C-alpha cells in the first residue's frame, strides 16, 4: 500500500519527563492526589514517589491509562494535540490522507456526523485534494465507471475512469485523455462521495 507507515518519528527518553507525565495521569483519571493514582495503579506510594523524584518516564502507566480512559497517547506522553476523541455515537472519526508529489501520505484524521457518510462503508478513509474531500472505502469488490483513486506508474491521483471493451479504460487528463489496459493501473480505493473541507472537523 502507498500509505506512509511512520510519518513522524518519536523519541522518548525514559530518564526524563516522569514528573510531568505522572501529573498528567492524575489529571487524566480525575484524581486530586498522587496517592489516589498509586491506589488505582495498585503500586505503593514509595514506588510512585521514586519515579516522580527520579523523573523516570512511566511508559507502562501511560499505556494503561490510555486503554482505560480513551485519552490519546500523544496527550498523555507530551501534552500535545487534543486530550480525547470527540467521537460520539453520532460521529465517526476517519483517518485522512493527502497527496504530496504524487504520493499518498497520512494527514491526521477528521470527524464526520454519521448522517453525512455513505452507508455500508467497510474500511473508510478520507482523502484530501486541495479543498475537495473524498470519502473512500479501502474494501471493494467491483470497479465500475466513475472516480477512483488510482496508481499509474507510481503516481497517485483521483481520476475519472471509463471502462472500454477488451479490458481497456479511458482516463481524462487536464489537456486530453489516454487509453490503457485496466491491468496497467492499480485501483487504491473506491470513492464513495465528495465534500468540501469546511464541512468537516479535521484533527491532527
From TrEMBL:
Q: Which residues form the Bacteriophage CI repressor C-terminal domain?
A: 99-190
The Bacteriophage CI repressor N-terminal domain is annotated at 20-82
Q: What is this protein called?
A: Phage repressor protein CI
Q: Which organism is it from?
A: Siccibacter colletis
| Lineage, opening ranks | Bacteria, Pseudomonadati, Pseudomonadota, Gammaproteobacteria, Enterobacterales
Amino acid at each position: 500500500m502507498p500509505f506512509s507507515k511512520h510519518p513522524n518519528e518519536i523519541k522518548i527518553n525514559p530518564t526524563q519527563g516522569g514528573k510531568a507525565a505522572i501529573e498528567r495521569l492524575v489529571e487524566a483519571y480525575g484524581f486530586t492526589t498522587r496517592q489516589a493514582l498509586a491506589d488505582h495503579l495498585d503500586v505503593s506510594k514509595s514506588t510512585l514517589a521514586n519515579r516522580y523524584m527520579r523523573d523516570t518516564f512511566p511508559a507502562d502507566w501511560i499505556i494503561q491509562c490510555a486503554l482505560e480512559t480513551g485519552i490519546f497517547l500523544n496527550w498523555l506522553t507530551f501534552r500535545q494535540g487534543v486530550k480525547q476523541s470527540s467521537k460520539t455515537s453520532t460521529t465517526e472519526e476517519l483517518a485522512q490522507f493527502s497527496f504530496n508529489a504524487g504520493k499518498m501520505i497520512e494527514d491526521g484524521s477528521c470527524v464526520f456526523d454519521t448522517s453525512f457518510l455513505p452507508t455500508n462503508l467497510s474500511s473508510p478513509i478520507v482523502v484530501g485534494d486541495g479543498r475537495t474531500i473524498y470519502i473512500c472505502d479501502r474494501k471493494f469488490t467491483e470497479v465500475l465507471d466513475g472516480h477512483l483513486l488510482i496508481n499509474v506508474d507510481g503516481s497517485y491521483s483521483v481520476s475519472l475512469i471509463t471502462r472500454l471493451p477488451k479490458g481497456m479504460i479511458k482516463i481524462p487528463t487536464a489537456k486530453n485523455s489516454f487509453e490503457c489496459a485496466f491491468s496497467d493501473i492499480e485501483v487504491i480505493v473506491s470513492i464513495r462521495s465528495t465534500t468540501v473541507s469546511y464541512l468537516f472537523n479535521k484533527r491532527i
